[in-house]
User: Which sequence fits this backbone?
């Protein structure tokens, strides 16, 4: 939703609040300058539980897992 002036938001505040989706925000302006944000605070729907085993076979080798990283050689 685009920016609204304070006067527009004041005229329909209850309706504006009920129309917002969770996480959606509206910028309130005064004289064309942003002065506040109205953000819907309802928690987003829960993420689906991932299926176990879907990445099976994606790790091809663990031979060098414990080797020091080149980027951190100066810290040793």
Assistant:
């Amino acid at each position: 939703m685009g920016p609204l002036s304070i006067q527009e938001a004041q005229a329909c505040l209850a309706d504006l609040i009920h129309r917002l989706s969770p996480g959606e925000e509206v910028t309130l302006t005064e004289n064309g300058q942003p002065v506040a944000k109205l953000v819907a605070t309802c928690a987003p729907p829960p993420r689906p539980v991932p299926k176990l085993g879907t990445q099976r076979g994606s790790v091809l080798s663990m031979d060098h897992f414990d080797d020091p990283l080149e980027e951190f050689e100066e810290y040793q």
